[in-house]
## 1
Amino acid sequence: MVEPNRGQRPLPYPRASALAASIGLLAALAGPAVAVEPASVLEASRKLVPTGPWPAGDEKGMGNLIGAGTQLRCGWHLSQPKAKAYELSQVRSNTMPKSPFTGPYTTQYKPTSVLPGTAHAFNSEKYAADAEPAQQGTQIDAIGHFAYLDKPWDGQGAPPLDGARYYGGFTQQQVKPTPDSPLLKLGMEKAPPMITTAVLLDAKAAVGKGQSLKGGDLITAAHIQQMLKAQGLARRGILPGDVVLIHTGWGDQWKDPGGDSNPYYTQGPGLSYDAAQYLGRSRIVAIGLDVPFIDPVAEGFLQGKAAPAAGTPAGLPFAVHHHMLTQMGIHHLENVRTAEAAADRVWTSCTMILPLRTAGAAGSAIRPVAIGVPGQR
């Protein structure tokens, strides 16, 4: 088992003067629309992005990389005259595809109300009992969403949660001491506003040869390098603090209304374990795909009728969740709407991801956006 980061020194956060200097640099560099930020912007950004290690007791993970350096790269994209905003979230509704791992998601619409003695009428809605909106639709996982045990549980008796460990070595007692406790550590409110650059990789084009990937299909580290080269991003690469988005085409299965026969949540393509390790070494802030799981899920896997993907460590069938969340402190973005940006070839952009600051939550509904120039080579 890989040991999580711990016992590390704090890092100074870039000061306002550095950000002001960045804004001045942006004004000088705004020019023709191109796919990759100018070398001078990237070099200035590298000097501003923290390098770690993080302090003992850290709860942000790779979120520590967010700051003046990532905002500098973001600002260049925002300054481009032809930049366009792209919605990266699916529309949420009572008839959208639903996760099988959570309670029923139903919004109940209340009657129009009128305040006595006033001319005001207003509308509102509420969630049905047991609804889990933070784990449905386009959403982000908090770092405390996953923990790991010393060895696989045999299913006998109570789960050995006393031995559970989270990112940074936090224990179950420190994170969730009782069954009805919120996350006392690593909850959603600890995630920073994610204002940074995004790299969008088109696996449907490069891996699927123009066809949508199928359930259980793998996107490997070699595929990521292949896509970077094919999209003209090999020299830039994936930078510390980036969000990586991958378009697989599986999002075409997201149909609303979904219906019981919709295959979206029954399976899906995903990252191989070596791809998760590669992205972890790249020090990204978050990984998002147009899939429900991020981990590859073959047909029948959720029913115990198919094996985990090749290369998956024993006892860790959701090894990508394990590695990203518990070992690296990298957030997951699930059910991301990538098709429009991929069709417009927006390979690099400024992305803004703002989770709700719900104390102790293991996830949040999000409405991420990407702002970039279409038609990149």
Note: Residues 1-33 have pLDDT under 50 and may be disordered.
## 2
Amino acid sequence: MARRPSVRTPASASDDTLRLAPGTSGGAARRETVMTVAIEYLQFVLAPQMLNGLTIGVAVVLVALGLSIIFGLLDVVNMAHGEFYALGAFISMSLYSLGVSFWLALVLVPPIVIPIGFLIERGLIQRVYQHDQRHVLTLLLTVGLSIIMEDAFDLIYGPNTMRPENPLPGSTEFLGVILPNYRLFLLAVGVATILATWLVIYRTRLGAMIRAAAFDKHMTASLGVPVLRVYAGTFAFGVALAGFAGVLLAPIYSVFPTMGHDFVLLAFTAVIVGGIGSFYGAVIAGLLLAQIQAISSLYIPPYWSDPLLFAIMVAVLVVRPQGLFNWMGKG
């Protein structure tokens, strides 16, 4: 027996057709839905993560600049640089315990770290400058200094994690994106510090002496420049930048004796990718790598972030072994 043709009545129409507005096609509705989802993803997921990467990138740049300046002038790979980053954070915690506010500690820590760095350079590192195996000796010396400083932190402050209060709680909404106030402050202060460092190196007489000593220390010394004092001052300034970054990041990350390890690893990668001894390379590579790490964490497990950065470093070294930019004494 022949089947009766089915008649589709309004009551039996699909739910998708009933949900469409008059004169709207199904394709247009799907495109509108996709656009809405994409905008919400950008606003509530990607944009906050990019801001996080930018703020961390600025702090990475501060640490990487210290490493890059020290190597560009002294030709020393400071393996204890991460401990100076931790030193700034621990000094700030000591100041907080004495009733000092965060804002005053932020101003006091760099002047406290500078003489410490100056004495370490004059008392330890400068003693091996003229040795035939100076690169190996300075590497071993700073590794040993790193171990001593880490054990000192553990002995004085204990192994427990400490975390200061957020000095700028709350958030600000901008274009529908919620931005934490302290991260905005960190971003502003970090950028200002990077610009101030650039002005000192490239627009002052002191910076001219630093760059001249990095290019040819013997010729610079023959012109009457106290090269050894410039070395000590530059080392002190480089580690003070790391200590300053430690104070800035203490309210975001916890303070503990081994806190310098992971962070300085990212800074070392930025210095190598940007070009060892390059100011511009440290800035660009630091911001780029921190952004890559922040965005990639949305799609890959956290334990793959470090291998990803190392893969980028290896790829850059294969294509351009000297890094992205020239070292300080050559531009």
Note: Residues 26-74 form the longest helix (49 residues).
## 3
Amino acid sequence: MSQGVAVKIGVPPVNRLFSVHYIGNVIPFTADFPARKDRRTMYGVHIVLFWLSFAAYGAEAGLQLGGISPKSPYRSALFGGLLIHGLFLAVRWMLSGHAPMAGLFESLTVFSFCSAFSAFLLCGTKETMTAWKILSVLVVLPQAGAALIDKRLTPLYPALDTPWFATHVGLSFLGYGLFAAGLALSWSYLRNGGDELYRAAGRSALYGFSAFSAGMVCGGIWAFYAWGSYWIWTPKEIWSVVLWVYFAALTHLKFLPVGGGWPGWGKRLEMKATAAGYFVMLATFLGVSLLLRSSHSF
């Protein structure tokens, strides 16, 4: 039987299985937690799934760095890790009752999942799979970070308990994962050349920008329902605008003729800008959330 837990102002409840994560000021509310006896086994299983996906991602990164590549994307440790990781997220969603995107642990592991997913969206051919060496490392690093963090289930702050929040965060992370693929593809192009790598890197910027833009729209709708305003000028929102303008400019500069409107602009400079966009994204995702206080702070 579920048990209501009263939350006093400024005093989160102590629970071995659940921790409470707040964004903004703490307010009193009642959270219903599932009975521990009924969920303890499933909780343990889903933690095992997390470690298995981490091991698979690590194996893929190790093989790639050792010069061993799979013959097919779907016969790889990365694909196995992606399936296990997806099952882990589904079970965690079922256990917590909300999309697993609250708090630093869930943010990092979803970022890792979306980065892995981008490999199968953009890097599925023989030429583009040369980007897997870099991309596999970009997949395992956030999962490694998540492995070091408290993994207890996190009930949502009431303002986040809406489908608009899940859609906003999910689309944003999909964009982040596509930007990770953009770094890997542009790096491979700068080292090896190839029109297919160039086109795939261009698609990563366009698709990532589109997903992130849709996420911003959903975030504005969520903010209106949560706080009565579509936009609040906090550090996170400001850096989101910086990231959006960066990739908006990048996707439009692609249409400039080589040596035309912008002297020196060409494919190699475009690929360098695509790679740099990943670090602008990291500043927006982790830099602001960890170093500055805002409604998006961890």
Note: The first strand starts at residue 3 and ends at 6.
## 4
Amino acid sequence: MVKVVSAELEAKVLSAVLKDKQLHVLLQANPDSLFRTHKDVWEFIKQYSEQNSVVPSIPLVVEKFRDFDPVGEIGNTKHHLEELRTSYLQDSLSNVLMSTAKQLQDNKPNDALNNLISKTSELKKITANIRDVDATDIEDAIAHFQHVKELNEKGNYGIKTGLAGFDNYLPAGITPGQFGILLAYPAIGKSWLALFMAVQAWKNGRKPLVISLEMTETEVRNRVYTIMGQGMFSHRKLTSGQVDEESFNIWGKQHLSNMPPFHIVSNDGIGELSTSVLRGKIDQYSPDIVFVDYIQLMQSNTPTDNEVVKIKSISRELKVLSISAQVPIVAIASATPDDATDMNSVPSLGQVAWSKQLAYDADWVLALGRAQGTTILECAFRKNRHGFSGDFMIDVDFDSGRFIYKDFEDKS
């Protein structure tokens, strides 16, 4: 019976990944030990994806493995992976307890204790989302380094932006559990940059979730199309509906088909946004990265009229959410200038509006500035737990959606 249940759950996980193409979800979980009846199918999917940079089609896998029966009605990969983990843990723990009981019956209490400790420790490493590590366990550390290296080589670990300055300063990319902040004064271009990052994640096979609290979902979508088009569309024309419908339809079929979903949620659809509501959206869409525009318009789980207390609470809640959901959250935050006449320079950490708690909780803070009348976006990492501090520039054409990295010395 156990083998039958395991086979069904393994088939669901593999069917899900063949359908939604979210292979990185499995690779990051390092699930090799979880597959017992379908290990050969899993190994084929892994090797094929590594060699061809694409998840194999369901017919191809069925042709290769005649006994593999894909499940029709299926959820997403992450959901079924958790089901498989739970089942594996229950089965394995039952086996451990039975073998331990047998050793106790044989009057071998020390062997029983050592077996229990050893086996449960192995199970925690395989199934736990949160785990303890022993810094003196060199083998475990080497296994971790090898796993991360493999994920990076396959492009399945951190999310890259395609902007050399950002990616160089954050070498592993935007990784699960990170809480990042885009900090700037109003009308600098922080929302545009967040959407550019979202589009880059999407182009690399990831599922972004964009929460906009200051624009409608259609306004955000127009910007997304502009960035996706890389000069093909004018944002001004999209906003006014000046679109050649036939050519737009052709473009959509060429560039949007067989791609992951790109979910956009506005406050018109969900009312006030708290971190609890955001958690619900994460559970609903299972995104690989979340963008929140912007923090000062959110509500904390504990209502308060004090803005400082509210932002402090939201900051902590977003940090905990990013870790518990293992999804990177990039949030936009407003800055308060020391000099009201200077709204173009790159703000410092101390200029975060309402609460400096954001600067404390964030894994990285990218501050932005743009001189009036220019297209040059100056960017500076004011904090970076996972890389280096430094400056870079982006030349942005907001109407065509082009973002071009520039060396900081080259301001031409």
Note: The two ends are 70 Å apart (CA to CA).
